[in-house]
Amino acid sequence: MASVTAATDWHDWHLPYDDDTSPLSRRLRLVQRHINDWLDGRTESSLRVVSVCAGQGHDLIGALASRSDADRVRAELIEFDPRNVAAARIGISGAGLNGITVTQADAGDFAAYGTAVPADLVVLAGVLGNISDGDVRATIGALPRLCASNATVIWTRARRHPDLTPAIRGWFADAGFAEEAFHAPADVLFSVGVDRFHGQPQQAPPNGRIFTFVA
Ligand SMILES: C[S@@+](CC[C@H](N)C(=O)[O-])C[C@H]1O[C@@H](n2cnc3c(N)ncnc32)[C@H](O)[C@@H]1O
């Protein structure tokens, strides 16, 4: 995956998804697999999903598009870039996924979440590498305010030196999560983690900072 700079164009950032062989597409398939595994493992007729900095929503849209039980999911994609919001809405409509909505908002503020939380699945893809290390820790610490009981969090993080993923995995444990999967393929920099929340959900405040995007 290309490294992120201050000039990152968050619309063009998605272009490698067009190439099935790109690391970003490999990462996407892993995230989608875990979204499917999560849904397969839940029997409820209604489940809530929130995607933090959702981009164009390829992960959720792709995972749910082929599922006959997609209507069990009420998902909210929170994304700042209006071009990505528009692309996600086109994707949702093309896939006929009536249960997914896109909100254009700053996902780094609790105010963006409203009724989307507590969520049964939190997708945190492409976030933890674009905020300060302190905010990574604070964001993981804030997840009990976004998660319902027994929720799953699917997260990604590049392992560019210095690799923060050992610390991240520890911070998830500290916040009441048990790791269900951690993928760190040797030939690429991305990693994908899946953690299950065993702690006590906490009320999300109406507003207040969780993280600030630095890129
Ligand atoms: C690395 S991309 C990840 C996109 C998507 N989650 C994925 O994995 O395909 C980061 C996304 O965060 C969005 N973004 C940046 N700052 C944001 C903010 N404060 N609130 C919501 N989205 C933000 C960007 O526009 C971009 O689409």
What is this entry, summarized?
The protein is α/β, with parallel strands linked by helices and 215 residues long.
Helix and strand layout, with pairings?
Blueprint lengths: L22 H18 L6 E6 L5 H8 L7 E7 L2 H14 L4 E5 L14 E6 L8 H10 L4 E12 L6 H10 L2 E7 L6 E8 L18
Helix pairs in contact: 1-2, 2-3, 4-5
This protein binds S-adenosylmethionine (SAM).
The site of S-adenosylmethionine has 18 residues, from strand 2.
Sheet with the most strands: spatial strand order? 3-2-1-4-5-7-6
Overall mean pLDDT stands at: 96
- Named at the architecture level, the CATH assignment is 3-Layer(aba) Sandwich
- Class based on secondary structure composition and strand pairing: alpha/beta
Order of helices and strands: HEHEHEEHEHEE
CATH class group: Alpha Beta
Number of helices: 5
How large is the share of residues in beta strands? 15-25%
- Helix % is 25-40%
Low-confidence stretches: none
* Corresponding CATH superfamily: Vaccinia Virus protein VP39
Radius of gyration: 16 Å
Described by strand count, sense and barrel closure, the largest sheet is:
7 strands, mixed
Q: Determine the N-to-C terminus distance.
A: 15 Å
Total separate domains: 1
Query: What best-fitting shape do the alpha-carbon axes yield?
Result: globular
